[in-house]
Amino acid sequence: MLDNSRPSEGIRFEELILDDRVHSTLYTDSEVFEAEMDSIFRNGWVFICHDSEIPKAGDFVRRNVGRDPVFAVRGRDGEISVIVNRCAHRGNIICQEERGNAKAFVCQYHGWAYDTKGGLVDVPYPAGFKGDFSCHGLERLAKVDSYQGFVFASFNPTVPSLGDHLGRATELIDRAVEMSPVGRINLSGGWVRHQLNCNWKMLPENDTDGYHVNFVHPSFAQAIRSNYDEAVLQDEESLKSEAKDWGNGHTELNFSPSYSRPLEWFGCAEDRYPSYSKALREAYGQEKGDKILLDGPPHAVIFPNLFLGEMNIVRFEPVAPGVGLHIHTPMYLEGVDDDVNQRILRQSEGALGPTAFLLADDSVIAERTQLALAGKGGWLDLSRGAEREVTDDNGVVVGHLTDETSNRGFWRHYKQVMQGPDQSSPTAAAAAA
Amino acid sequence: MVTIEERLRVEEFLFKEARLADESRYSEWEALAEDDMHYWVPAEAGQDPDDGRISILNDNRTRLATRIRQLNTGVRHAQVPPSRMCRIISNVEIETIADGEYFVRSNVVLYEYRIQADKEMEVWPARVEHKLRMRDGEMKMFSKHILLLNSEGPVRGLSFII
Question: What is the ipTM of this complex?
Answer without folding.
Answer: 0.96
